[in-house]
Design goal:
The chain is an alpha+beta fold. It is built from twelve helices and 22 strands. The longest helix is centred in the N-terminal third of the chain and has 36 residues, at 50-85.
């Protein structure tokens, strides 16, 4: 591994002492923040190489001081929310983020991004947040009931924690034909919920914050890390690594907790069908940190990854790239997919066109949709690997999220998306999907397109 990722792995608990190599300290410090390792690195620096202490001691101490200050703000926010919620509703449960630090009582394990709260009933909690001055900053999506922000503190309200699994995904379905369209059978992955009642059962209260017991918290972290790894398309709109080392390192701490019970953990894994997530986490921990802490044999892969919707692919994994916020390399991915993948839903994808135009560093992608839409919702995706867009057309209204400069609905039912990208050549993934009014997927197609041409 490279010099920077070697330091990251050591900070997270890997045994190999990093060698003194040339790297940009600013790049490393940014990655330490993204992997939430400032406390762990500060804890380990006194026993590490002198050159690393000299270069990073001061900045890491300052970074962790900021983390602790934010953790205190998060704990005050949770206290205030629980107090305002009153006794009419059970308090929400804190998962991820500060949860491991609160449960273990180890300040160097505290890490902060947003505050993830799983609630028994979203209505009263959201009403309480609104009364406290929080503003909605993200709309509901799947298990997430919304994001709410107040004075720099972000609260993610969850109806439950999803535990993903491969379900019906089969390796035999993931070999594309040598030529022509790849008609991929629709294989729905599994998704088991961890709801509030289970999270509360056996959990502990720190101040007013409720956190799960170490067995269940370990499964939550495995599930979250596994979801981030498998869902390649969900990362196209934000710069973050596929694997956050702090989550893997937390597993080591949770297994060592006095209250961790191996039999209870195995029972929960079976009840929640968390085998895929736990085995993947064991593999990732072995590869990146040198040891699997979990009482379940590590998986051996390959681990299929979701390209978009229910499109899956069996792709090689570059262990180095898992730790860097560079998403995925389409130059390496595209040749493994063929030119077109159509999801076999029993309904063929409608006719549509994509045109790609380049003018210097400006790339314009125009998607022509069928003249008449039989679906209630149409979705599209343009993905360069390091940036991308997902747009939704419903009721004549176009909305979009992602890294585009412009996104417009033109006459003739054409969606035009504009980007400023490097002038080098390369490929992109372009897709369109249809949904009915309930959100059920009717058809979907995904193809690779060259930035310099049209299809």
């Amino acid at each position: 591994m490279g010099a920077v990722t070697q330091v990251l792995r050591w900070a997270a608990g890997a045994p190999d002492i990093p060698e003194d190599q040339d790297f940009d300290d600013r790049v490393l410090l940014d990655l330490i923040g993204q992997h939430a390792l400032s406390g762990r690195l500060q804890q380990r620096l006194p026993t590490g190489p002198a050159w690393l202490r000299d270069r990073l001691g001061g900045p890491v101490a300052a970074m962790h001081a900021g983390t602790l200050a934010l953790a205190e703000a998060h704990m005050r926010a949770v206290d205030r929310i629980v107090t305002a919620l009153g006794e009419q509703q059970p308090p929400p449960v804190v998962v991820k983020g500060i949860a491991t630090g609160l449960l273990t009582g180890e300040r160097h394990l505290l890490r902060c991004g947003d505050i993830d709260l799983v609630c028994a009933d979203g209505g009263p909690l959201i009403d309480t947040l609104t009364r406290l001055g929080y503003e909605r900053t993200r709309v509901p999506f799947l298990h997430e009931l919304g994001e709410f922000t107040c004075e720099g503190v972000e609260i993610d309200v969850h109806a439950y924690v999803p535990v993903p699994g491969y379900g019906a995904v089969r390796h035999a379905d993931l070999t594309p034909p040598e030529r022509g369209t790849w008609y991929q059978p629709r294989r729905v992955p599994s998704m088991h919920p961890i709801r509030h009642g289970l999270l509360v059962d056996g959990g502990v209260t720190v101040g007013r914050a409720r956190v799960p017991d170490p067995c269940l918290l370990a499964i939550v972290l495995c599930a979250h890390a596994f979801l981030n790894f498998t869902n390649m398309w969900s990362l196209s709109h934000r710069a973050k690594p596929y694997v956050k080392l702090a989550e893997l390192a937390d597993l080591h701490a949770l297994v060592q907790h006095d209250a961790f019970d191996t039999q209870q953990f195995l029972t929960l894994v079976a009840e929640l069908d968390a085998w895929d997530a736990v085995r993947w986490a064991g593999w990732a921990s072995t590869v990146l940190l040198g040891r699997n802490p979990l009482p379940v044999p590590a998986g051996t892969g390959p681990f299929p990854r979701c390209l978009w919707w229910d499109f899956w692919a069996r792709l090689p994994v570059d262990e180095e790239s898992l730790l860097l916020p560079d998403w995925f390399d389409l130059a390496a991915v595209a040749p493994l997919l063929g030119s077109r993948i159509e999801l076999d839903t029993g309904r063929p994808a409608p006719p549509w066109t994509v045109e790609v135009r380049r003018d210097g560093d400006q790339v314009t992608v125009t998607l022509g949709l069928p003249e008449r839409a039989e679906a209630a919702i149409e979705r599209g995706r343009v993905d360069f690997g390091a940036s991308g867009t997902e747009w939704v057309l419903s009721g004549g209204q176009l909305t979009a999220v992602g890294g585009h400069d412009t996104c417009d609905l033109l006459s003739g039912r054409r969606v035009r998306v504009g980007y400023r990208v490097p002038s080098t050549g390369g490929q992109m993934l372009v897709g369109v999907a249809e949904q009915d009014a309930s959100g059920a997927l009717l058809s979907a197609v995904l193809l690779t397109a060259d930035r310099a041409g049209a299809r």
